[in-house]
Specification:
The protein is α/β, with parallel strands linked by helices. Helices cover 41% and strands 14% of the residues.
């Protein structure tokens, strides 16, 4: 009997293994997955998340990744407010594909400042640019209000070219830490006055109205300092022989990408790389910021956030393409902090970022349109009009079914707006009337995305790296270590 049981067990095991190999049981599939795990895992993720704003990310070759090769150039890309969940939201919405998440080297960065458990962008940016922790609100200064030398100031004497790009205004916290030294991030005029004195070879950020308001006289000073001033970012390509380039964008170029910004960030990164690479044989350093990931998170606007993540990833793709061709470039992608505490999947084990394709503009832009129409029409401003705009701009009723309770919620918002009993919702970067904020919240609910706050968090943020020395950016890292590791790998130290 014992022999019979043993024989039966052996036969059963053999049959199971054979069946697994032929029919694709988990055992067989795991074996195949080991051969090409990335594709196999991706194939199993539901494909209902894809949107009409997707693109095809670049896949790097990894030929210089983790080698002991020489690093001549460094490209630092900062997704402002981008925690891991923000990156993953872009991945899902882009059809389960993102250049950032193709990279093999991943670490997690601690972001607190010298003054607060939760940092702001000025303090964290100063850490990346200057290598020191500082007080929230300080730009390029130590906690005792002394100027801290930034990367361009350190590299310029070495003959290394430097550049800064941002979808924010050039006086914004993150770009300004690479050229200015002030104890108040809101001191716009003072910050702008320091740009002509900077060591930057290239800058590109917003915008014409900012300079007209705060520092119109400084345009002449920029030109005296050798900057060729452009208003069209596509003209960098035509000015590669210039000594220095400053792109002061048109106002439209710093609006949310979903409201029509275009390809400012990826196109400018591509052209800036060409300019800086041609300018110095000793190498270059470029910082490019996807600033409005943070803005979308502050607003708790899901589509605003996701489209900014994807736009930022397009810039990452441009950096990776060059790095592959060059073979001597270290690319680092990280964030200054996390914003909003985004949650992907708020129930029913589902995530419906595919519904975001029906939202045609940010909630802030929608709010302005509704307010302007109300001011124009007065008492003729009807619920029928508002309902039509909600349908056209969010897909409600026509593409996204709403029940009676949800419809009533929107109608009540309309009534409160008309009666003036509801105050606007104000975030760090936008103001929304109650109709817009209700629509935004309902869109998030339908997409099954939640938010913990409208501010920054202290959560770890990811850092991705590729190129020689990329392995140094793995594990747990304090944000002060990022510039130190860059300096050591690229040979920036004295």
């Amino acid at each position: 009997m014992k022999k019979t049981l043993l024989l039966f067990s052996a036969l059963l095991m053999s049959f199971s293994l054979a069946w697994a190999q032929e029919k694709g049981t988990p055992a067989a599939e795991n074996k195949k997955a080991d051969e090409n795990s990335t594709e196999k895992v991706a194939d199993k993720i539901p494909d209902t998340y894809a949107n009409d704003f997707t693109y095809t990310p670049y896949t790097p070759t990894f030929k210089s990744d983790g080698t002991n090769g020489k690093v001549k150039n460094v490209i630092l890309l900062i997704g402002d407010g981008m925690g891991m969940a923000q990156a993953v939201s872009g991945y899902y919405a882009n059809g389960n594909d993102l250049a950032i998440l193709k990279l093999k080297r991943l670490g997690f960065v601690r972001t607190y400042s010298a003054s607060h458990f939760t940092t702001d962008s000025a303090a964290s940016g100063t850490t990346y640019a200057c290598g020191v922790k500082t007080t929230n609100g300080f730009v390029g200064m130590t906690p005792d209000e002394k100027p801290a030398a930034n990367i361009p100031e350190k590299l310029s004497p070495k003959g290394i070219a430097t550049g800064v790009i941002s979808t924010d205004n050039i006086s914004g916290a993150t770009p300004s830490v690479f050229y200015a030294h002030v104890a108040k991030r809101g001191a716009t005029a003072d910050i702008l006055s320091q740009l002509p004195l900077s060591k930057l070879d290239l800058f590109a950020a917003g915008c014409e109205s900012l300079w007209e308001k705060y520092a119109p006289e400084q345009i002449a000073e920029l030109k005296k300092a050798g900057f060729t001033i452009l208003n069209d970012y596509n003209q960098i390509q035509d000015n590669l022989s210039a000594a220095r380039i400053g792109v002061i964008t048109q106002d439209a170029d710093v609006q949310p990408v979903m409201n029509g910004r275009g390809d400012f960030l990826p196109a400018t990164v591509r052209q800036a790389i060409e300019f800086l690479n041609g300018k110095s044989k000793k190498g270059f350093f470029l910082m490019a910021e996807g600033a409005q990931i943070d803005w979308g998170c502050h607003n708790n606007d899901v589509k605003y956030t996701v489209t900014e993540v994807i736009d930022f990833d397009k810039a990452v793709s441009e950096a990776l393409k060059f790095a592959d061709q060059d073979g001597q470039t270290l690319v680092i992608i990280t964030a200054d902090h996390e914003t909003g505490g985004i949650v992907l999947g708020t129930g029913k084990y589902e995530l419906r970022t595919d519904l975001l394709k029906y939202q045609k503009q940010s909630a802030g832009a929608f709010s302005k349109m509704i307010a302007a129409q109300h001011q124009k029409e007065g008492k003729k401003f009807t619920w029928d009009f508002v309902r039509k705009q909600l349908q056209d701009n969010f897909g409600f009723w026509s593409q996204i079914p709403l029940d009676e309770r949800e419809t009533e919620q929107l109608k009540k918002a309309y009534e409160n707006f008309c009666e003036g009993v509801a105050k606007d919702t104000k975030t760090l970067y936008e103001s929304e009337n109650i109709i817009a904020s209700t629509a935004r919240q309902l869109m998030a609910r339908k997409a099954m995305v939640g938010w913990q706050s409208g501010g920054h968090s202290n959560g770890y943020v990811p850092v991705f790296a590729i190129g020689a020395g990329a392995e140094e950016f793995t594990g747990r890292i304090d944000n002060t270590e990022i510039p130190k590791k860059i300096a050591e790998i690229a040979g920036y130290k004295e």
